[in-house]
Each structure stands twice: as C-alpha cells, then as structure tokens.
C-alpha cells in the first residue's frame, strides 16, 4: 500500500529524532490524514477510460441477451478498438459533461451503439450525429438544421442536447434502463408497454416489456460494452490512450472562413478539422452565423498566430441569394462563370432549371478567371449590329456571340433583359 511506505518513513524520522514511540513525535490522526491523502491520490483516474469506469452507477442487466451481445462484441475486438479510437477526440468532453451533471458515466457508451462514435453518421431513418437525433426530436431541443449546418452533428451542442433529453427521460421513468429504452424507441412507446403490463398484472421492468426488437436489444448492447470497457484486458482488447484532459477547445471567430483555410491556419489536416467540426454543410463557415469552431488544444496558438499574419481572402466563395424563378444559366452568366461550375459548387442536379430564392455559393476563383478573359477579349474586339429575331433572348444571343449577358446589358445600356423582335442591339465581335 502507498501509505505504508509513508508510514515507514515517518517511523524512521521519529526514531532518528529520539522519540520512543511514533505517537510521541506525531499525532495519531496525522497518519490517518496521510493515508487519506495518499488513497485519494491513488484513486485519481489514470485516464478517461478509468474515469468512466469509476463513474459507472447503473445496475447491471444480467440477461441472456446481455450475455449474447457480450459474446458477439468480444468476438469482434477490432471493431471495438476502432470505435474506441474514433471516440478519443470526444470522450473526455462527453464524460466531463456527464460528470458535471452527476449522471452515470454509462451514458458515454450510448454513442458506441448509436453511431460508433462517428459524428457524421446518418441512419436510414435520417437520424444523425454522435447521438443519432432524428429531425423532429432535434427540433424539440432547438438543434439547427438548415442549408448552412446541422447541429445534430456538432459534438458539443448535440451532447448537451442528448444529456438534457436523457435527464428528462430518467425523471419521467425513474429508471435508467427504461430511460435508455425510451431514448431508443420513444417515450410514448415505452409508456404504452408499461401501461399494458400493468393492466395484465405483469412486471414493468425493462426485460418484461413488450417493446420493438431493436429496443429489446438496446440496453443489453450497452451492458455488454460496459463489461468490456470495465475489463478490456480480459477480452484481449487494448483501448487507445485517452488522457483525462480536454482534447479540443471552442475558439471564437467573427469572419467568413473556408473550412480548408481554417484547417491550414491551425496546421492540421482537413480530415482532422472536419472530425471536430462536422456540422457545417458548406465549404465556408459563415461569420455571423457561426462564431465558433472546435480546434485541438495544441493548435490554438498556431491558429491565432497564423490568422494574424494571413494575407488574402479567408474565403474563396461569394454568397448570392437568387431571385424566385431565376435560371441557373442566367446566374452563371451574371457572375461570369460556367453553369457547370455553379451547379457543381452547389450540388444542383441538371434537371433543376430555375431557383426558388435559394442561397448559392459562387466560386470567386472562377469569377476572377472568367472576368479576366472576357475583359481581355473585349479589348481586342469590335462591335457589330445584330437584329433580334423571334424567340431570341439576351442569354441566347450572348452565347451565340461568345459573350455574357452582363456584357450585352452594359454595351446597350439596357435596364432589364427584355428585348423585342425586329429591334437591333450591339454585340462584341472578337478578333
């Protein structure tokens, strides 16, 4: 025992100083204090996994299904290790938030089952993120889901929402196994099963309820993972080292910034950045819209230093809100880019011809390149007169004369793109 060594040292000191007994040199409770301090120090978690084990509070579920799932997971050690490695970025935060709320740390095992600790996981019923929120439940907990981002995938925001939900379920059910079942299949489903058993005079504990098969296996899966995490060596599994300290920190930002540029400023890979910031749906993080990003702690000073010395644009995209029924072809011409580039940048299918007032991203590098070419061509061109035919549009004329809608409007000083058959306009004739 560690405190025995301290006791021996104190005993030697007492004898060397001429004390006839240890108690003559020291008060009796000194040794109890030393013992208490050393035991407390010895009880300090070795890492995040150890901290999780020390926080297990739920009663074990000793059922045949639990044993079956334990056998299954134990026979797939590589899968457990892979999930554990993926969890290493988020585990400390999840356990810290659980502990702060005085909840059982078994809750940190839920993402093992729900998403395999993949924050970008998406199920067939459109559940997303570490905690697999379906859209409707996410709305109830005020998780944003729009064109710019999906907070179901945000490791921090979704974790807080999931724990809010689990706390609510526990208060309603008064039992963690029932709360976990409710998290999986819905509170009303579990309540109906309980009511049915009560009516039949049957037990209302988790194992006695008639619930969907997935939910019937849900808690046994968590129980099986709990047993493995509690003693991984017994199952030949080496869990990755996860320190009992934060891996990431929230960093404030107030400017539009591309995801790629943010990763470069932090000097981390794009994959690493996306793993911590998977909620963004677009290549640009809008300044006023999202004022924070998550970065590994060891990269934060690097990020700020590189940001201060950065020259150039922090974003390579222009944001444009289209008019209702505006065509993608006319928008592309307006910005001097190809329609293909516009569609690819915004994942727009070829079948969709017009917009409905949607937000679009315009690649700035394409604008600069195309505008420069048009300007150079225009310098080396002359103007010719063109008579408008029935069925003509300015866009059609522009394409036939290798120019843009913008150029025709400017040359002819038009207020809009309406033209009349039989009238004449000037178009560039390139040399």
UniProtKB/TrEMBL annotation:
Q: Does the keyword Signal apply?
A: yes
LysM domain boundaries: 318-362, 384-427
Q: Which SUPFAM superfamilies match?
A: LysM domain, Lysozyme-like
Keyword annotations for this protein, in alphabetical order, are: Glycosidase, Hydrolase, Signal
Gene Ontology terms, cellular component aspect?
membrane
Q: What is its EC number?
A: 3.2.1.-
What Gene Ontology terms for biological process does this UniProt record contain?
peptidoglycan metabolic process
InterPro entries annotated for this entry? Answer: LysM (IPR018392), LysM_dom_sf (IPR036779), Lysozyme-like_dom_sf (IPR023346), Transglyc_AS (IPR000189), Transglycosylase_SLT_dom_1 (IPR008258)
Domain of life of the organism in this record? Bacteria
- Which positions carry the signal peptide feature in this UniProt record? 1-24
* MF GO annotations: hydrolase activity, acting on glycosyl bonds; peptidoglycan lytic transglycosylase activity
Family, according to the entry, reads as follows: Belongs to the transglycosylase Slt family.
Task: Specify the protein name.
Answer: Membrane-bound lytic murein transglycosylase D
